[in-house]
Design brief:
Chain A has 402 residues and is an alpha/beta fold. Chain A has 16 helices and twelve strands. Chain A has helices at 2-10, 18-21, 36-44, 68-79, 90-104, 119-127, 147-161, 184-193, 212-215, 224-227, 244-247, 278-293, 296-313, 337-345, 352-359, 382-398; strands at residues 23-24, 83-87, 110-114, 131-135, 167-171, 197-200, 219-223, 235-239, 319-322, 331-336, 362-363, 372-376. The interface between A and B is large, with 101 and 101 residues.
């Protein structure tokens, strides 16, 4: 019993009050903050299989109460793509698409990706034993991707492999600089070559408008917990009718003694994707808000917040704003050479910056890092945005950087 | 805007009050009901990436605050196995183990499974393009699995394939009859043949005591949302040191232009398994309770509840209790021929049974099915167990089956 008492103590204080007490500017957390509706749904559907109370067909995507079937249709309409399926996470959506295409086109071996792709795009390629070919970026301050370079890399792969690339991936908004890339010209190139085109919208779907038909995207990957105000983890996978039978693969295995078979289960997602309770219900509960907040005028207002901060801090000594300007997506990356200089002699070293912001009620900075900084103003109130800006300037003043 | 208002209406009422108002006997929901501690943690860590506030190494299994590192050690100790990793769900743990073993032993093609294995065990085999060979059960009333039959099937596979099976799987407690199987003799057989042995404890880990060393199990698979009072979805994968390098595979892929690489990320779980917020924190918060409730005396008391119901209803006309008796795991399956007879002329057909129980405040019966019934008394109070029993008898009386 002593051991159990120890455990009780060890796991007794799993509290986290940061959302009430602090302004959180964490680069990947802003888009996943629960809406009040999602929070209510979370509390109601906290138990593991809560969503399956009225499952009649043994398939989560076929549950009618709560309205999952309707929701998948609404989500497909929202992304303007033919079909939507759920997955454990956006990374899993990518893995699954590559696996499906590798089955469909066994000779094609290379995935073309932009050189700012998320690490999970690389891992999805690795998990499928595929090769990659990167589309370069301009480096320097902007890290810009040129659509025309996609065509060059596709041709290079075609030359080297003797076959077309398996898939072309564009990171709609990248994790590092928050750069927005227009998918349309790249989609047109893919159409010309007849290569499937996947838009990784993990950072954009739920934050910015998405229109897959307009982009000629065959696949779109979104993240509920990253950008759609869902508790998650949950991934969204949108796909065109052309690939329906490749993604929605029914099980064919049969027991040699029992003769059991599971023809209604999808083997691509191991039966039902693991999103049975809180992940899916919170995604559904936040969906109306997500539709609202991705309307152009609301999304534009969010861009303004990031650009306001940038305008106000760009003249701090030894600070350089990285990525394309003006910002479209509010995830922002700064090179902070001057803070890095301060860290050299500061008793708290690289942690001083996080400390200084935390003292002012602002959290979400990566710990221990002072030569680079990422922040995200998404969905902060203007008051919070102004307070964050003021605090930033105060800290710069404290270290004589203004 | 009209469209958005429609959406607001459609997703406005995602409520579920069943846990307060009803007694839930759903066969797969009882073990996943949140503890008060997990509920508190769920509310605190509802946001998507909440657990990653203090992630210093970019790996969820290496987070020290909240104490994930400590937790994985405690969980390994609890299951008495060398290592524990987290996955999206138990099904994903199985898929991952088979994938790892298929890489390690490329000539071995067959997975030996008991014929009461969960459908996801079959799907994990199918997803890895492997074959299966089932160990028979006694059918009839008990559906008993004999350990010695594992040896016969292993030899049969060895004869047919010319190599050993890739893996042997035992379903510790099965989904259908809730039969408990002693893993020890099967573990000994696997040791004799030197075949990896996986214990599928999705229904037992968190409900009954588990001791992998005692069982000679190389792998154990548990389900947080099924049996460990976690919101989930979340899977636990326990594995022996012998397989450490097969499960914990670090990424080797590299960008051909960017030179980016991710050697600290595990490509087997796509970087971090998708359990970043609510799934893991609720598993951790419930863990002390899970340790307590799997102590032999507490687990025995839960078996008694199921056996009490069975003892009281077994003489209802046209009812047959399936599976081994007395129950060890409280998941219970009945053949209910007499209810099926009632359904034939009942205006609500097969749904009448669910209606009759619901009128009495009891939910969780599979909808529309009257010829078979599953229930689970796990963690109900004795008062609730007695009320459920009384209601069952009342319904039998109503249709003259006593």
């Amino acid at each position: 019993m002593e051991y159990i008492n120890e455990l009780v103590q060890k796991y007794a204080n799993l509290t986290r009050t940061i959302n009430e007490e602090f302004i959180n500017i964490h680069p990947i957390q802003r888009g996943g903050m629960l809406t009040p509706e999602a929070f209510k749904a979370l509390v109601a559907y906290g138990d593991g299989y809560s969503l399956c109370d009225n499952c009649l067909k043994g398939r989560i995507d076929q549950i009618e109460n709560p309205p999952v079937v309707e929701f998948l249709k609404d989500m497909a309409k929202f992304l303007n793509i033919d079909n939507v399926m759920l997955t454990a996470a956006a990374r899993e959506s990518k893995r699954l698409v590559m696996e499906a295409l590798a089955r469909k086109y066994p000779k094609r071996k290379t995935v073309v990706i932009d050189s700012l792709a998320h690490y999970t795009t690389y891992l999805a390629i690795e998990a499928n034993n595929l090769k990659l070919s990167e589309v370069p970026n301009s480096e320097n301050r902007e890290f810009n991707i040129e659509a025309i370079d996609y065509e060059k890399i596709i041709k290079k792969v075609q030359n080297e492999d003797g076959v077309l690339p398996l898939l072309v991936v564009l990171t709609h908004v990248d994790y590092k600089y928050g750069n927005y890339n227009d998918p349309k010209p790249i989609g047109e190139i893919c159409q010309k070559f007849n290569i499937p085109f996947l838009l990784n919208a993990a950072y954009s779907g739920g934050i910015l408008p998405i229109d897959c038909k307009e982009y000629s995207a065959d696949f779109v990957v979104c993240s509920g917990h990253k950008s759609m105000a869902a508790s998650g983890p949950i991934g969204v996978l949108g796909f065109n009718d052309d690939f329906y039978n490749d993604i929605m693969v029914n099980s064919k295995i049969q027991g040699n003694i029992s003769s059991k078979s599971f023809p209604s289960k999808l083997c691509t997602v191991m039966g039902c994707p693991p999103v049975y309770g809180a992940p899916l219900i919170t995604l559904m509960a936040s969906f109306p808000t997500v539709v609202k907040r991705t309307q152009k005028e609301v999304a534009d207002e969010e861009s303004k917040k990031a650009n306001y901060v940038i305008e106000s801090i760009k003249n701090i000594k030894g600070i350089e704003i990285l990525g394309k300007l003006p910002k479209i997506h509010p995830l922002t990356n700064l090179k902070t050479e001057s803070f890095s200089e301060v860290a050299k002699t500061h008793p708290r070293r690289g942690f001083f910056l996080r400390d200084d912001f935390k003292e002012r009620g602002i959290i979400g900075l990566l710990p221990g890092i002072s030569k680079e900084m990422k922040f995200n103003t998404y969905d902060l109130t203007w008051e919070q945005v102004k307070y964050f800006t003021k605090s930033f300037i105060e800290i710069a003043q404290k270290y004589n950087l203004l």
